[in-house]
Amino acid sequence: MTKYLKFRKIWILAPFIQILMLILFFVIIAILGKMCVDKTGLLFGRPTFSYLAVLFAPVYEEIIFRGFIFGLLLKRYSLTKSIIYSSLLFGIWHLKNIFFVDTIFLVKQICYAGLIFGPIMCLITYKTKTIWIASILHYLNNSILFLIFYNSIA
User: Fold this and answer.
1) Nearest in space to 89 (alpha carbons), one of 106, 104, 70, 76
2) Nearest CA to 29 among 132, 135, 148, 140?
3) What is the CA radius of gyration of the chain?
């Protein structure tokens, strides 16, 4: 287990508060997903069988890309190279959405994930020494994007 998978007190955010925030955002994503499915029959433009992946993505993506990949890269490379490599892999990971979104949206998603969001989450993970703050922010990011998506189909 890498050191980044442990909960740590960050500022006023004790581990208990972090867990509550993760649960809160999980519920928000679940509610937004339900509203989207009721309205369109799709889950944010995806088939509804992807529901669990959408609910848990902020946690499992942070575990994989910041907890393991970034943590392992830091053992071999500089901070800058580790951020670049893990963020590019995170961007490429979003190719998994190729069957659910149009090409232009997919390219934007890959660029955003790999060039903006990934590096920011790496820096947050590096500074806080835990992935859980990044996971909370990942849920917040997805919630905002889903609200934008939901409002665009209104």
Assistant:
1) 70
2) 140
3) 16
Query: Are 10 and 131 within 8 A, CB to CB?
Result: no
For the stretch 38-52, pLDDT in tens is 887 777 666 766 667
User: Which residues constitute the domain of residue 36?
Assistant: 3-152
- Give 134-154 pLDDT, tens digit per residue: 999 999 998 888 887 666 655
Task: Write the burial class of residue 75 (CB in 10 Å: 0-12 exposed, 13-18 middle, 19+ buried).
Answer: exposed
Whether 53 shows a pLDDT value over 90: the answer reads no
* Number of domains the chain contains: 1
Task: Name the DSSP letter for residue 130.
Answer: -
Residue type, 147: L
The token duo for 57 is 């993505």
CA distance 44 to 34: 10
Query: Cβ neighbours of residue 146 under 8 Å, at least 6 residues apart?
Result: 29, 32, 33, 36, 44
Cα 5 from chain centroid (whole Å): 15
